[in-house]
Amino acid sequence: EDKVVQSPLSLVVHEGDTVTLNCSYEVTNFRSLLWYKQEKKAPTFLFMLTSSGIEKKSGRLSSILDKKELSSILNITATQTGDSAIYLCAVGIFISNFGNEKLTFGTGTRLTIIP
Amino acid sequence: NAGVTQTPKFQVLKTGQSMTLQCAQDMNHNSMYWYRQDPGMGLRLIYYSASEGTTDKGEVPNGYNVSRLNKREFSLRLESAAPSQTSVYFCASSEMGRGGDIYFGPGTRLLVL
Predict the structure, then answer these.
(1) Cβ–Cβ of B50/A34 closer than 8 Å?
(2) Are residues A34 and B99, on separate chains, in Cβ contact within 8 Å?
(3) Secondary structure (DSSP) of B44-65
(4) Is residue B88 less than 8 Å (CB to CB) from chain A?
(5) What is the pLDDT of residues A49-59, one digit of tens each?
(6) Per-residue pLDDT tens over the stretch A61-111
(7) Is the Cβ–Cβ distance between A106 and B42 less than 8 Å?
């Protein structure tokens, strides 16, 4: 059974702190690892990491994929109250000869930034 | 572009009632998905449609049926709602069926009493 595990489940830090969120996976037919941010509604896409792109950065957010350890981290530096959200990790799993993938999600990390 | 739209936004059902959740996308995407999200469980795939005319079961298909009416629309039906189906339902679509280009709808909050 495909499994994606995130830790910690929740995290409370002060504005300006740096946080690291973890994601580990155990799946067959791995294609990609994705990070999403979910505030009040639908998840919004942050990063996609694959074998050919194991590190991504956008502003204060960065992510690394460790294919040997089957894990990924999401770093957020100089956190702001607007970073408060649930951060979801998902793994894209190859499901067909047409190149289709399906996503298996972790349970998410709830991040709260205190002003 | 509206992206992915879902109706209704919120629904209350009694146990045993049926209903259909509607989803449409205007991005000409091939693949469409239905997920449910429960507290502490993340998003779980109910059904997906890799392309028009095909549907397949995901992780938690029991109690649901789907119809890929055309390329734009993918509906989810609950034939006999149960309290365990209380959840937030997200529809999503992607052009190539790749994880990196999935777009989610705003969600439907369903309460089954």
Answers:
(1) no
(2) yes
(3) EEEEEESSTT--EE-S--TTEE
(4) no
(5) 987 768 999 99
(6) 999 999 888 999 999 999 999 999 999 999 988 876 556 678 889 999 999
(7) yes
